[in-house]
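Propose amino acids for all 260 sites.
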């Protein structure tokens, strides 16, 4: 093959519909990764059905579904989303749920409500409403009362779900995280805040990581494909579109559901 042909093949692998040959799922495994849900239980329920239907084709030996975090806040159905995820145990499918920054803020509010203004301003008000809790103001006393109410009504299986969320997951050549990685650090040395919150310098990084990083956190109109990362937050709350990437062998494709 000529040098020009090799370069064209590499560029097609980086930016086309099929991954570069180096990025591969584990053998006989089909991976699904789902972007930020943000209280859109209606979209989640439809996408779960699409994943189950898709999983029946091709009969891979192993199927893994990774949810990338940000299940709560902003949309109207935070409680229903947690109910769906905490109770989803499809046969012959491994389900991995990662923590997003919004779950981290919610857990911090449960532990210390009076410090929860940031969560309230970031969609926590809608999450509280999904549990039947109203907030009179963001004054300390009102925050404390709302926190006490949420601790009282939060179902035990929701709390177990939130407390059990992982920060990252690796499958073959793919690393799944909520927000991204800090360049120059091994995965084991990454800071939890970066995994949950990072944008720059991750989004502007032009090098590569040992893995292709599959992430959410930063919304876009369509999936973002770069040499080192694949962003799949397509704005379930803002644009009414929830996206799942399907990874098998060296191929990638997308499933999505959207508002009618």
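Proposal:
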């Amino acid at each position: 093959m000529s040098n020009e042909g090799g370069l064209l093949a590499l560029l097609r692998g980086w930016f086309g519909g099929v991954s570069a040959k180096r990025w591969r799922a584990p053998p006989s495994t089909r991976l699904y990764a789902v972007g930020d849900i943000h209280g859109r239980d209606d979209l989640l329920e439809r996408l779960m059905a699409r994943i189950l239907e898709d999983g029946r084709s091709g009969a891979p030996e192993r199927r893994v579904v990774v949810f990338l975090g940000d299940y709560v806040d902003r949309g109207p159905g935070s409680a229903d989303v947690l109910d769906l995820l905490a109770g989803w145990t499809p046969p012959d499918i491994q389900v991995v749920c990662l923590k997003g920054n919004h779950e981290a803020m919610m857990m911090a509010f449960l532990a210390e409500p009076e410090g929860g203004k940031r969560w309230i301003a970031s969609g926590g008000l809608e999450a509280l409403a999904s549990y039947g809790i109203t907030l009179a103001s963001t004054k300390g006393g009102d925050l404390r009362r709302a926190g006490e109410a949420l601790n009282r009504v939060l179902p035990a299986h929701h709390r177990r779900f939130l407390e059990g969320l992982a920060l990252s997951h690796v499958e073959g050549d793919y690393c799944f995280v909520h927000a991204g990685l800090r360049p120059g650090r091994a995965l084991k040395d990454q800071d939890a805040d970066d995994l949950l919150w990072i944008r720059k310098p991750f989004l502007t990084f032009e090098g590569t990581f040992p893995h292709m990083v599959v992430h959410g956190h930063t919304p876009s109109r369509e999936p973002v494909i770069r040499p080192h990362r694949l962003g799949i937050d397509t704005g379930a709350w803002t644009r009414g579109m929830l996206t799942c990437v399907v990874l098998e062998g060296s191929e990638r494709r997308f499933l999505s559901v959207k508002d009618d």
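The first helix runs from residue 3 to 15. The radius of gyration is 19 Å.
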